[in-house]
Amino acid sequence: MTDHFAPPPARGCSQTPVLKQRGQHEVFCGLTGIIWLHRKMQDAFFLVVGSRTCAHLLQSAAGVMIFAEPRFATAILEETDLAGMADAQAELDRVVSELLKRRPDIRQLFLVGSCPSEVIKLDLANAAERMSAQFAPRVRVLNFSGSGIETTFTQGEDACLAAMVPVLPDTDARELLIVGALPDVVEEQAVGLLNAMGIGPVRVLPAPARNAEYGIGPNTVYALTQPFLTETHEALQRRGARHIAAPFPFGEEGTTAWLQAIATEFGVDAATFARVTDAPRARARKAVAQAAETLRDKSVFFFPDSQLELPLARFLTRECGMQAVEIGAPFIHRAVMAPELDLLAEGPVIAEGQDVDLQLDRCRAAAPDLTVCGLGLANPLEAEGLTTKWAIELVFTPVHFYEQAGDLAGLFSRPIRRRSLLKMEAAE
Q: Which residue ranges does the record assign to the Nitrogenase/oxidoreductase component domain (predicted)?
């Protein structure tokens, strides 16, 4: 199959000046990542050291029934802890000991920092080191921050995986590591395509269990599946692993480019690559084309929220025919985002960080056909007559790789169709 993609633009966005925003921002906190991480790591437990608000957030977001035994919980900081009247470290030791006694299946325990624990400067890193020594070798205790003080919600996963990288074993084996938590069905598709090309062994981070047989070393090459894994990317490089730079696997073009970069690294010939990818590529094209009928020539405006914004803008502009007005991202890591910026045609404002009031002014002035934003902004903007898409839904819905390309396009086309139907009903 010959590539049907449009050639890269003569002038991409790699050299576009980035609008730096450092004002008030509207995002969820990194604790949200626990909702999908605890499902991926079957022998892990996430203990948030935080407030009752943290506990309510996790319980509500995860929809866990009261009689269920999830793999996360909150060690609630009481007023005596916050006021320094109690030894929070001693209390944490007691809670962890009781937890591990009651749940002998736990092999990895994550102590997760929150806004309250960071405000009182509770040292969870030393606590994790102390507990690891105490409970080794049965349980490994790690620490990461899920605080939302200066971060967005997807950075919780990044901080978690980055905490795991230094403790993975050393290896000299040549292995491919796929980095990023994906729904099981999507992960199976990705690994299946790579295996069909003869690429292997393929390892996945996070693995479902601590004893998964893989390590990190100078012969490890890795491909990111999520654009927000920048700390993990740097941690892997410090271990000597090498990054396979590629666009992210959103849509047919992104998926093909991601697979092609890996195939090139492992010397897969063109005939084998075509044999494995031709059929799913055709299905993806057909599925995306249906949604693109609604999206073509429509304008889109991205508020910074999930860090998926640049790859999604590339997908919408190149495969669905949309026009990007502004693409806001919480952070832009040049080494990770360079392939995406090269494919984005010059034109949209590229913004990093957020000053929500100024960005709202620009959005209202542009009056885009679709605005991608957080939950806190969506309802007010809808009330003003703008059509919106919840950014968080793009993280919780399977959207990677070929078989989900049509679903991804549909997430953007449905709000526009809904608005059109409402207008028609109002006119009648």
A: 29-384
Structure tokens at 130: 């102390």
> Helix (H, G, I), strand (E, B), or coil: what is residue 12?
strand
For residue 151, what are its two tokens? Answer: 């971060």
**What pLDDT digit, counting tens, does each position of 359-379 carry?**
999 999 999 999 999 888 999
Cα distances from 360 to residues 98, 328, 356, 368, 390, in angstroms, run 48, 12, 6, 12, 16
Q: E strands of 95-235, at which residues?
A: 108-113, 140-145, 175-179, 202-205, 220-224
For residues 272-288, one letter each, b for 16 or more C-beta atoms within 10 angstroms of the residue's C-beta and e for the rest, the string is ebeebbeebbeebbebb
Confidence of residue 56 (pLDDT cuts 50, 70, 90): confident
Whether the predicted pLDDT of 85 surpasses 50: no
Q: In what order do the strands lie in the sheet with 349-354?
A: 18-22, 349-354, 323-329, 299-302, 370-373, 388-390
Provide the pairing of β-strand 323-329 with 108-113: unpaired
User: Is 115 labelled as part of a ligand binding site?
Assistant: yes
Tokens of 315: 């997908």
Amino acid letter for position 69: E
Q: Can you say whether the dihedral through the CA atoms of 122, 55, 151, 210 is positive or negative?
A: positive
Instruction: Confirm or deny that 29 is annotated as ligand binding.
Output: yes
The Cβ-side half-sphere exposure at 190, using a 13 Å CA radius, reads 31
Strands of 108-113's sheet, edge to edge? 72-76, 44-50, 108-113, 140-145
Domains and CATH numbers, the chain: 18-25+284-427 (3.40.50.1980), 30-150 (3.40.50.1980), 175-265 (3.40.50.1980)
pLDDT at residue number 87: 74
Calculate the alpha carbon distances from 173 to 165, 180, 205, 239, 371 in Å. Answer: 16, 21, 16, 14, 46
